[in-house]
Design brief:
single chain; alpha+beta; Alpha-Beta Plaits; 5 helices; RNA-binding; SLIRP/GR-RBP-like; protein biosynthesis; Eukaryotic translation initiation factor 3 subunit G
Protein backbone atom coordinates (compact mmCIF):
# COMPACT_ATOMS: atom_id res chain seq x y z
CA UNK A 1 0.00 0.00 0.00
CA UNK A 2 1.33 3.46 -0.94
CA UNK A 3 0.73 6.33 1.46
CA UNK A 4 1.21 10.05 0.94
CA UNK A 5 3.55 11.18 3.77
CA UNK A 6 1.92 14.61 3.90
CA UNK A 7 -1.40 13.00 4.81
CA UNK A 8 -0.07 10.50 7.40
CA UNK A 9 -0.06 11.19 11.14
CA UNK A 10 1.28 8.89 13.90
CA UNK A 11 -0.22 9.35 17.37
CA UNK A 12 1.42 8.45 20.66
CA UNK A 13 -0.03 4.93 20.56
CA UNK A 14 1.56 4.11 17.20
CA UNK A 15 -1.79 4.05 15.38
CA UNK A 16 -1.77 5.40 11.84
CA UNK A 17 -4.31 8.15 11.19
CA UNK A 18 -5.04 9.52 7.71
CA UNK A 19 -5.89 13.19 7.29
CA UNK A 20 -6.74 14.65 3.88
CA UNK A 21 -4.97 17.98 3.41
CA UNK A 22 -7.61 19.37 0.96
CA UNK A 23 -10.33 18.92 3.57
CA UNK A 24 -8.26 20.91 6.05
CA UNK A 25 -7.77 23.72 3.52
CA UNK A 26 -11.48 23.79 2.73
CA UNK A 27 -12.34 23.92 6.42
CA UNK A 28 -9.87 26.74 7.01
CA UNK A 29 -11.40 28.65 4.11
CA UNK A 30 -14.86 28.21 5.58
CA UNK A 31 -13.66 29.67 8.87
CA UNK A 32 -12.06 32.59 7.05
CA UNK A 33 -15.22 33.26 5.03
CA UNK A 34 -17.45 33.28 8.11
CA UNK A 35 -15.20 35.66 10.05
CA UNK A 36 -14.42 38.74 7.94
CA UNK A 37 -11.83 41.21 9.20
CA UNK A 38 -13.42 44.67 9.52
CA UNK A 39 -11.32 47.80 10.04
CA UNK A 40 -12.68 51.33 10.54
CA UNK A 41 -10.80 53.96 8.49
CA UNK A 42 -10.16 57.60 9.54
CA UNK A 43 -12.66 58.89 6.94
CA UNK A 44 -15.47 56.85 8.50
CA UNK A 45 -15.46 54.10 5.88
CA UNK A 46 -14.77 50.45 6.66
CA UNK A 47 -12.38 47.99 5.06
CA UNK A 48 -13.67 44.41 4.97
CA UNK A 49 -11.24 41.57 4.26
CA UNK A 50 -12.57 38.10 3.47
CA UNK A 51 -11.21 34.94 1.90
CA UNK A 52 -12.77 32.57 -0.61
CA UNK A 53 -11.86 29.62 -2.80
CA UNK A 54 -11.66 30.43 -6.53
CA UNK A 55 -12.41 28.10 -9.44
CA UNK A 56 -8.83 26.74 -9.36
CA UNK A 57 -9.22 25.63 -5.74
CA UNK A 58 -6.90 28.37 -4.44
CA UNK A 59 -7.67 30.60 -1.50
CA UNK A 60 -7.83 34.27 -2.52
CA UNK A 61 -8.09 37.44 -0.47
CA UNK A 62 -10.98 39.84 -1.16
CA UNK A 63 -10.73 43.45 0.09
CA UNK A 64 -13.77 45.74 0.03
CA UNK A 65 -14.06 49.36 1.13
CA UNK A 66 -17.52 50.28 2.39
CA UNK A 67 -18.81 53.72 3.30
CA UNK A 68 -22.14 54.11 5.01
CA UNK A 69 -24.31 56.99 3.82
CA UNK A 70 -27.46 58.00 5.69
CA UNK A 71 -30.35 58.67 3.31
CA UNK A 72 -33.67 59.87 4.67
CA UNK A 73 -36.77 58.96 2.70
CA UNK A 74 -40.51 59.22 3.18
CA UNK A 75 -42.33 55.91 2.76
CA UNK A 76 -45.74 54.46 3.46
CA UNK A 77 -46.34 53.43 7.08
CA UNK A 78 -46.83 49.78 6.12
CA UNK A 79 -43.51 49.80 4.24
CA UNK A 80 -41.76 51.30 7.27
CA UNK A 81 -43.30 48.60 9.47
CA UNK A 82 -42.06 45.79 7.18
CA UNK A 83 -38.52 47.14 7.41
CA UNK A 84 -38.60 46.47 11.16
CA UNK A 85 -39.59 42.81 10.84
CA UNK A 86 -37.11 40.40 12.43
CA UNK A 87 -34.94 38.42 10.03
CA UNK A 88 -35.06 34.62 9.98
CA UNK A 89 -33.14 31.64 8.65
CA UNK A 90 -29.46 32.24 7.90
CA UNK A 91 -29.96 35.98 8.51
CA UNK A 92 -31.49 35.54 11.96
CA UNK A 93 -30.13 38.07 14.50
CA UNK A 94 -28.52 40.07 11.67
CA UNK A 95 -28.68 43.86 11.67
CA UNK A 96 -31.67 45.55 9.99
CA UNK A 97 -31.46 46.31 6.28
CA UNK A 98 -29.57 44.55 3.48
CA UNK A 99 -26.05 43.21 3.96
CA UNK A 100 -24.06 45.05 1.28
CA UNK A 101 -21.41 42.32 1.28
CA UNK A 102 -23.95 39.91 -0.19
CA UNK A 103 -26.71 42.17 -1.56
CA UNK A 104 -26.57 44.58 -4.49
CA UNK A 105 -29.12 47.40 -4.58
CA UNK A 106 -30.39 48.31 -8.06
CA UNK A 107 -31.38 51.71 -9.37
CA UNK A 108 -34.86 52.89 -8.38
CA UNK A 109 -37.59 52.50 -11.01
CA UNK A 110 -40.26 55.18 -10.98
CA UNK A 111 -43.77 54.40 -12.23
CA UNK A 112 -45.48 57.06 -14.31
CA UNK A 113 -49.25 57.02 -14.41
CA UNK A 114 -51.29 58.99 -16.90
CA UNK A 115 -51.98 59.37 -20.61
CA UNK A 116 -49.25 61.91 -21.43
CA UNK A 117 -46.23 59.63 -20.86
CA UNK A 118 -45.49 59.40 -24.58
CA UNK A 119 -45.32 63.18 -24.85
CA UNK A 120 -43.00 63.29 -21.84
CA UNK A 121 -40.79 60.59 -23.36
CA UNK A 122 -40.61 62.50 -26.64
CA UNK A 123 -39.64 65.69 -24.79
CA UNK A 124 -36.91 63.83 -22.90
CA UNK A 125 -35.53 62.33 -26.13
CA UNK A 126 -35.48 65.75 -27.78
CA UNK A 127 -33.66 67.22 -24.78
CA UNK A 128 -31.14 64.35 -24.80
CA UNK A 129 -30.42 64.95 -28.49
CA UNK A 130 -30.03 68.67 -27.87
CA UNK A 131 -27.62 67.99 -25.00
CA UNK A 132 -25.53 65.77 -27.28
CA UNK A 133 -25.51 68.51 -29.90
CA UNK A 134 -24.22 71.01 -27.34
CA UNK A 135 -21.21 68.78 -26.67
CA UNK A 136 -20.24 68.70 -30.38
CA UNK A 137 -19.04 71.42 -32.72
CA UNK A 138 -22.32 71.87 -34.58
CA UNK A 139 -21.49 75.10 -36.36
CA UNK A 140 -22.19 73.31 -39.67
CA UNK A 141 -25.10 71.11 -38.54
CA UNK A 142 -28.69 71.55 -39.73
CA UNK A 143 -31.90 70.33 -38.13
CA UNK A 144 -34.33 69.15 -40.81
CA UNK A 145 -37.95 68.81 -39.67
CA UNK A 146 -41.24 67.62 -41.18
CA UNK A 147 -39.64 64.68 -42.96
CA UNK A 148 -41.88 61.94 -44.30
CA UNK A 149 -41.65 58.68 -42.32
CA UNK A 150 -40.47 56.80 -45.40
CA UNK A 151 -37.34 58.96 -45.70
CA UNK A 152 -34.09 57.24 -44.65
CA UNK A 153 -30.55 58.48 -43.97
CA UNK A 154 -29.43 57.21 -47.38
CA UNK A 155 -32.24 59.10 -49.10
CA UNK A 156 -31.18 62.31 -47.35
CA UNK A 157 -27.53 61.82 -48.32
CA UNK A 158 -27.96 60.58 -51.88
CA UNK A 159 -31.20 62.26 -52.92
CA UNK A 160 -32.03 65.38 -50.91
CA UNK A 161 -28.56 66.78 -50.15
CA UNK A 162 -26.35 65.16 -52.78
CA UNK A 163 -25.53 68.46 -54.49
CA UNK A 164 -24.40 70.42 -51.43
CA UNK A 165 -21.03 68.90 -50.57
CA UNK A 166 -19.67 66.22 -48.24
CA UNK A 167 -21.89 65.16 -45.32
CA UNK A 168 -20.06 64.23 -42.11
CA UNK A 169 -23.03 62.61 -40.37
CA UNK A 170 -26.76 62.18 -40.84
CA UNK A 171 -29.04 60.91 -38.06
CA UNK A 172 -32.82 60.53 -38.12
CA UNK A 173 -34.54 60.58 -34.73
CA UNK A 174 -36.59 57.43 -34.21
CA UNK A 175 -39.11 56.16 -31.69
CA UNK A 176 -37.43 53.86 -29.17
CA UNK A 177 -40.25 51.32 -29.15
CA UNK A 178 -41.30 51.18 -32.81
CA UNK A 179 -38.14 52.35 -34.58
CA UNK A 180 -40.27 54.59 -36.82
CA UNK A 181 -38.97 57.98 -37.90
CA UNK A 182 -40.13 60.96 -35.88
CA UNK A 183 -39.77 63.24 -38.90
CA UNK A 184 -36.60 65.00 -37.76
CA UNK A 185 -32.94 64.62 -38.74
CA UNK A 186 -29.60 66.23 -37.85
CA UNK A 187 -27.17 66.63 -40.74
CA UNK A 188 -23.60 67.86 -40.34
CA UNK A 189 -21.79 69.23 -43.39
CA UNK A 190 -18.06 69.52 -43.89
CA UNK A 191 -18.35 73.31 -43.94
CA UNK A 192 -20.72 75.98 -42.69
CA UNK A 193 -20.94 77.41 -46.22
CA UNK A 194 -22.32 74.13 -47.60
CA UNK A 195 -24.85 73.92 -44.78
CA UNK A 196 -26.01 77.49 -45.41
CA UNK A 197 -26.43 76.78 -49.12
CA UNK A 198 -28.52 73.66 -48.44
CA UNK A 199 -30.77 75.55 -46.02
CA UNK A 200 -31.26 78.46 -48.45
CA UNK A 201 -32.28 76.13 -51.29
CA UNK A 202 -34.41 73.57 -49.43
CA UNK A 203 -36.13 75.34 -46.53
CA UNK A 204 -39.85 75.57 -47.34
CA UNK A 205 -39.58 73.20 -50.32
CA UNK A 206 -41.69 70.07 -50.74
CA UNK A 207 -40.14 66.64 -50.26
CA UNK A 208 -42.19 63.42 -50.38
CA UNK A 209 -45.50 65.27 -49.91
CA UNK A 210 -44.34 67.34 -46.91
CA UNK A 211 -42.96 70.89 -46.63
CA UNK A 212 -39.47 70.87 -45.13
CA UNK A 213 -38.51 73.17 -42.29
CA UNK A 214 -34.74 73.57 -41.92
CA UNK A 215 -32.80 75.53 -39.32
CA UNK A 216 -29.45 75.48 -37.56
CA UNK A 217 -29.15 72.82 -34.86
CA UNK A 218 -27.88 75.55 -32.53
CA UNK A 219 -29.25 79.10 -32.45
CA UNK A 220 -26.97 81.60 -34.16
CA UNK A 221 -25.48 84.29 -31.91
Amino acid sequence: MTTDPSCLLINTFGVLTYHHSRVAQWADAEVDQSAPQITTNPDGSKTVITYRINDDGKKVKVTQKIKEVVVRETVNKSVAARKKWAKFGAEKNAAPGPDFRTTQIGDPVFLRLGTSWKALEKAEEDKAEEDKAKERDDSSTLKIMQLNEIVTEDMIRDELLSGFGYIVRCNILRNRETGRSRGMAFVQFASETAAQSAMDHLNGRGYHNLILHIEWSKPRK
